[in-house]
Design a protein that fits this description.
single chain; Alpha-Beta Plaits; Chitinase A, domain 3; Trigger factor, domain 2; six-stranded antiparallel sheet
Length: 430
């Protein structure tokens, strides 16, 4: 077999293969002997039919299978001979096989690029402050207090105000006609909640028990329910109750109710710790993002199209799911969809470059993850989730390439820690 590798630019290569006729014939005979053991041919005992008969009866199958085998073995041999690491699925241009002749075909594929790493040390970064401020603690305590509050009906005769909750029944109408499937009973609407649309809040403010309030909501053209997409729907809300959330007192008893804390101060100490961890984690992620953006800017190379396309497809899938959770459907012909595709294409390319650069830096700096480090991290996860090491390891192994991906993620984290240790980090709060 003869192979020639052509450089198509970027990280794309074309492997041109030529298999001599004698090798083709050898593979044909070999496959025919294997096939003869599996099929019944009239006039011959199973496995005894000669290759000439097998070729005559099963010509198309023989040609297809031998061609596939030759392409597969040739690709494997060419990758090994030319030290190429393939990425994604190859594009194969292979004509029909003629077992009496040589066989020529080509394979186009992306390969992992050889990246000449430039400057990546001493990068100046600004770090967001991660200290826990008193207002951070107060906000978290307030949220915890509200989560443990109890809804009670108001005693005074008044309309609903900001912060109240209304218990309502509502019906929907389109052009004056009711939409039965959109009718709901006993719905709690928090007038202060950010999850409630402003139209709803405006309709309910000032409402009293027994009042009927009306409002209109205009749905976007790409709303999933085509019946109301692009339409104005009128809602009629019947107010059944006005409730106020009675908040528990912030004291030692509250601390005992929400967890294993003897005092309110103990609860506050734990909350400060958790808030600090979260702020530190956000700050760390921001530093890593800024660091990788700068390294990409300093190291220009072409990202493999197959990896970019795969990343782009995943991003588009995630975006569609995000919009579906909001009741919106993305129309592929719309300008918004096409703009989103273009934006995510750019993000996908930068993501791929970041991934490859981290890999290349890890290789250059001889950064590795040992089996002991793997075991240590698995034990850490097990302790955090109060599960056995065996259970966590089994969960990882259930996933496709689980342990390999787990090691790769640890290697990425270890490499980023190294890069940050080489950076100049300025505290933005000072």
């Amino acid at each position: 077999m003869k192979t020639e590798v052509q450089d198509l630019g970027g990280s794309q290569k074309k492997i041109v293969c030529e298999v001599p006729s004698d090798e083709v014939q050898k593979e044909v005979d070999k496959y025919c002997k294997t096939l003869a053991k599996e099929v019944e041919v009239r006039g011959f005992r199973k496995g005894k039919a000669p290759s000439s008969i097998i070729k005559r009866y099963f010509r198309q199958q023989v040609q297809q299978e031998v061609a596939s085998q030759l392409v597969s073995s040739s690709l494997e041999e060419a990758l090994k001979e030319h030290s190429l690491t393939p990425l994604g699925e190859p594009e194969i241009d292979a004509p029909a096989l003629d077992e009496e002749k040589g066989y020529a075909f080509s394979i186009t594929l992306d390969v992992k690029p050889e990246i000449e790493i430039g400057d990546y040390q001493g990068i100046e970064l600004e770090e967001e402050p991660s200290e826990v401020e008193e207002e951070d603690l107060e906000k978290s305590l307030e949220e915890l207090q509200k989560a443990h509050g109890e809804l009670k009906g108001i005693e005074e005769d008044r309309g609903a105000v900001e912060g109240d909750t209304a218990l309502v029944d509502y019906a929907a109408f389109l052009d004056g006609e009711p939409i039965p499937e959109m009718e709901r009973k006993d719905v709690y609407m928090e007038i202060h909640s950010a999850s409630v649309k402003q139209d709803v809040k405006d309709a309910l403010l000032g409402a009293r028990v027994g009042d009927e309030r009306k409002m209109e909501i205009e749905y976007p053209d790409n709303y999933m329910d085509k019946k109301i997409a692009g339409q104005k729907v009128e809602y009629r809300l019947q107010v059944k109750k006005i409730l106020v959330k009675e908040l528990p007192k912030l004291d030692d008893e509250f601390a005992k109710d929400v967890g294993a804390y003897e005092t309110l101060e103990a609860l506050k100490d734990r909350m400060r710790e958790e808030i600090g961890k979260e702020k530190k984690s956000r700050s760390q992620r921001a530093l890593e993002d800024a660091l990788l953006e700068e390294i990409v800017n300093r190291n220009a190379f072409d990202a493999p199209r197959s990896l970019v396309e795969a990343r782009h497809a995943q991003m588009m899938k995630d975006a569609k799911i995000h919009f579906l959770t909001k009741g919106l459907q993305m129309e592929e012909s719309s300008e918004d969809y096409q703009q989103l595709e273009a934006n995510l294409e750019e993000l996908s390319e930068r993501d791929v470059k970041k991934h490859l650069l981290v890999e290349a830096i890890a290789k250059k700096e001889s950064i590795q993850v040992s089996d002991e480090e793997m075991e240590e991290k698995i034990k850490e996860i097990a302790d955090q989730h109060e599960q056995s090491v065996e259970k966590i390891k089994a969960d990882i192994q259930k996933q496709e390439d689980g342990l390999e991906n787990f090691r790769a993620n640890l290697l990425r984290g270890k490499t980023l820690d190294f890069l940050l240790s080489q950076a100049t980090i300025i505290d933005k709060g000072k």
